[in-house]
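Follow-up to my post from last week.
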Amino acid sequence: MRLQILLAGRGGEGIIFMTRILTEGLFRCGHPVISTETHGMAMRGGSVISQVKVGGYLSPMIRLGEADLLLATSPEEADRNLPYLRRGGVLIVNAPLPGPTYIDATGISHRLGNPRGSNLVLLGYALSQFNPLLSLTPFQDVVAELSTPRYRLGNLRCLEEGWKLGKEQRGRENL
Amino acid sequence: MERVLLGNEAMAWGILEGGATVVTSYPGTPASEILEMVQRIREEQRLKVHVEWSVNEKVAFEVALTNSYLGRRSAVAMKQVGLNVALDPLMSAAYTGVKGGFVLISADDPGPYSSQTEQDSRYLASFAKIPVFDPCCPQEAKEMVKRAFELSERYKLPVMVRPTSWICHARQGVSLGKIEPVDRFPSFEKAPERWAATPRFRYLLHRELNDKIRDIASRNAPEPVFLPERADLAVIASGVPYAHAHDVIRAMGLEGRIALYKVDLPYPLDHRIDEIVRKYPQTLILEETYPLMELQVGYREGLRGKLDLTVPSEGELTPDAVAQILSGLLGEDVTERKALPAAGKRPSLCPGCPHRATFWAIRKAVPQGIYPSDIGCYTLGLNLKAVDTCLCMGASISQATGLYHSFRSAGKSPPSIVATIGDSTFFHSGVPALINAVHQGASFVLVILDNGTVAMTGGQPTPATDGPGKRVRIEDLVSACGVDFMRVVDPYEVPELIRTVREADRYAREGRGVAVVISRAPCLIYGKREREQGEIIIADDCTLCGLCTEKFECPALVKGPEGRPLIDRALCANCGLCLHVCPRGAIRRVEV
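User reply:
Got it. Predicted complex:
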């Protein structure tokens, strides 16, 4: 499998956490994976991106027009980074808007009582697009391991809810 | 065993698998996680290793180096501009050499993402005449740290490993080995002609160093990776640009037309590179960020790189740029230009950050001042127009001195000068600057922003935090520097802080000397602060003047429809600083 994923958001929204879960989960599925994350000055609420590449790449950077999946925490960050998405690539954005591209991760995470877990709703939703190529289990394991005890259950609930909604959405599309 | 690791974590494993017994660092993006991981592994495996966050890079270098004088292996890690601070011991250590392996990791930041310069540490390796490894991915970075120990010990020479941001902050499956217990004991053999060499011996040591470097340069030929029968172009690359070139050549299906060579040691460059250049009609050198290999090539016919402007001389080298350069050199159409992502949101101080309160108070107290500042989170005081300069670590204080004497020497009375510096930066190199300011009779306000940690780089300790030895108090240092005016204020007490800065400004403007205000409150991310009671609201008497959303620039205060300020409850720290901002008192705290 070759797959290039770009994550876009702002410092503090959990982009690094999502990237870690993706990288570790894909690695445990047996895929050669390399990813990047932004630290330092750029992380203080500024726009940041991270990149995850699967399939024997040496370079961790994604070229313009080559991302298979663009995951954004807001429509603004999605718009800005659209040049990275390849033609026919999948776009998934956190926003309370209609259509399969959008998921109201913020609203859902609030409803689940874990407002800081919107990144995991988004991630679960995105992962479901690759079902059955990818299963949820290794990612659940990673979330459980990397979350602090206080947020573990809430985080898992967010990831699972995103996955479930994504699967339902795809089920509707296939009707 | 293979584990997913950050490049910095991989290098930490390389350091300990390589048998280091002293590891030191000063935090700086992108190098900070190296020592953090060394610390974690030491604790997990109960290793007998001395690990320290030193007060600055020069000290870190010297502490680690000395362990290698005693025949044991040591490593020091820093960011590239930190190496400027440690350049003095580096230059001399190349002459004295070492007994045990000594590895210097200096992390570069092409882009730059989080640094003042895009400088190439490899130049400083070549300036000091020590070999430098240039890894292309986290796994290789770890291996190169171990190879660097071997090379260092074989030639009795410090060796540099130079990762860049996308090594340090890339994650990859990395194979781990066993960390063996070290059975070497320190032994100091007195040899003043080496360890304390006078100029007469320095000449001999220099000759020895030159011999070593010449020898190393004959043993590390570039390694062919793609070697087609007939190539139109050869690419010689090192570091992350090698990774880009490898992937781009493969993705474009050019393995049959382009020969690709990989260089592990860009300095000293093996002279056999000339034979490669001679063999092909064109040879392209790809490296970050300065042309180091390119300058060392002897045969220059058909040589392409930064010097002839084939490769951009600034910014990071992206795979897109590499693809475009390769297509151009192969005579293909390169007119297609892809749209770049637009500039995004700028970074800002966190909601509730004590620094925002301090900058706000400074602007209120001394609105017409000049504000020299320094390196840290608080450089973001730029957004509040309370930062006018940012040169390098510790420069806020010397630049305030420079401002003062510039006006004074012109016979003018100096304007209000309010310098800001963080606690860790003050320890790092602010102290000598303050001694100098006092002794040279400068008069200005110095606000030390003391949040008790190195916040920008992940909350590392400072000399004022708990450590193996005594805690060093900022107040003691300030008075020992000869400062007579010192006040300690909690920045959340905004009116008091404003009064104190005004008082300090009066003192300084009377020419009585440096007035120091220590603005002390823990970092909201790494420290602890009790959450205030009640909820902040914006009352109906708000006149939509926009002051709070535009000038205070708290991320939790956003402009809603018709310019109405709204509080983003998910971000708001409930600190109440904005209560002091509204001139009409329309921002209020109410009981809930």
